[in-house]
């Protein structure tokens, strides 16, 4: 069986880490057909459009999509691409790896981030030159869909339930609806939950990350708090993600375009490669996904490593080392 994979590197280091991920996928005994498409700042400059229609259609029809990074045009690229695959949840694991100098080596978390609404719903206005507004959207249906996914996700021996992170004491209507709906669904499923205000979570996760396991949160909170967790485990070069829908999914490293190092060939490909492992697992190849994860873990522990992790290896060196260990 051939799996059609849309490959959309985007901008900056997306152009370097996405080929690293496809090189690793090509080393597996799985029949992939990669179809590459453009999106992002460069294509906008050239054509006036950050997300060409054919790129959207490709993501909407491929078996899965591998995305790199979005820069200034993130709102015009990654949000519609998540829509193209019908994604309602962004899964962002944040875990420390052996041998990596992490601020909190005991960290092992998974963020389940609402992926369609909140302040990322796109209702932003400039009323006058000095007044702008943003409408925050929270619906019961999106909160319910996320909560049902979370309940299924924790339905294994590995997890005891999940933590709902919100700011319902201030955003009473929006986060109030989010919290109440997620808690109600968890109750229906018989899943244990606790809840923490998002600002308190930011402090507690730094002081004692082990008290958290699966974290269910609104869109912006998930985006920001997972980046914070990246700081605890050794940096953004280590966090993968999956944007999952009912029929398709899109996989991307959590990091952005890193313009300070883009084009130098020194970006850490680990997050993109682990995202590719999530893609492989999503397609049903559990053993191959585990093999990629083990190869990445061994490479992180024994080297070579890129500069963000204290080494001096190139993206290509690290990718070759992962492939050698497969
Ligand atoms: N690969 C992740 C990426 O491109 N991040 C840029 C960004 O701003 N993302 C916003 C989001 O994840 O919602």
Automatic annotation (TrEMBL):
Keywords: Oxidoreductase. Belongs to the isocitrate and isopropylmalate dehydrogenases family. GO terms for biological process: isocitrate metabolic process; tricarboxylic acid cycle. It comes from the Archaea. Pfam families: Iso_dh (PF00180). The lineage of its organism: Archaea, Methanobacteriati, Methanobacteriota, Stenosarchaea group, Halobacteria. One of its GO terms (molecular function) is isocitrate dehydrogenase (NAD+) activity. This is 3-isopropylmalate dehydrogenase. It comes from Natronorubrum thiooxidans. InterPro entries: IsoPropMal-DH-like_dom. Residues 4-322 form the Isopropylmalate dehydrogenase-like domain. Gene3D superfamilies: Isopropylmalate Dehydrogenase (3.40.718.10).
């Amino acid at each position: 069986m051939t799996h059609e994979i849309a490959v959309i590197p985007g901008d900056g280091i997306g152009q370097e880490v996405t080929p690293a991920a496809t090189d690793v996928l090509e080393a597996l005994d799985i029949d992939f057909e990669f179809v590459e498409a453009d999106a992002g700042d460069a294509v906008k400059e050239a054509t006036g459009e950050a997300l060409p229609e054919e790129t959207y259609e490709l993501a909407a029809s491929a078996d899965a999509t591998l995305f790199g990074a979005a820069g200034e045009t993130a709102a015009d690229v990654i949000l519609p691409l998540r829509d193209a695959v019908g994604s309602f949840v962004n899964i962002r694991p944040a875990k420390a790896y052996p041998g990596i100098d992490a601020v909190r080596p005991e960290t092992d978390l998974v963020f389940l981030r609402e992926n369609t609404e909140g302040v990322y719903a796109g209702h932003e206005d400039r009323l006058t030159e000095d007044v702008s507004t943003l409408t925050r959207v929270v619906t019961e249906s999106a909160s319910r869909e996320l909560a049902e996914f979370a309940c299924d996700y924790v339905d294994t021996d590995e997890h005891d339930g999940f933590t709902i992170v919100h700011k319902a004491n201030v955003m009473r209507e929006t986060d109030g609806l989010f919290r109440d709906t997620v808690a109600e669904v968890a109750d229906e499923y018989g899943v244990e939950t606790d809840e923490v205000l998002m600002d308190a979570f930011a402090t507690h996760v730094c002081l004692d990350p082990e008290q958290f396991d699966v974290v269910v949160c609104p869109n912006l909170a998930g985006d920001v708090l997972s980046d914070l967790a990246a700081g605890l485990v050794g940096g953004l070069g280590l966090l993968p993600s999956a944007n999952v829908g009912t029929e398709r999914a899109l996989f991307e490293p959590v990091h952005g375009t890193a313009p300070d190092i883009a084009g130098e060939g020194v970006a850490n490909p680990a997050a993109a490669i682990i995202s590719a492992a999530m893609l492989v697992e999503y397609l049903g190849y559990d053993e191959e996904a585990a093999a990629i994860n083990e190869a990445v873990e061994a490479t992180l522990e024994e080297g070579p490593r890129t500069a963000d992790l204290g080494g001096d290896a190139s993206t290509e060196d690290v990718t070759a080392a992962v492939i050698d260990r497969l």
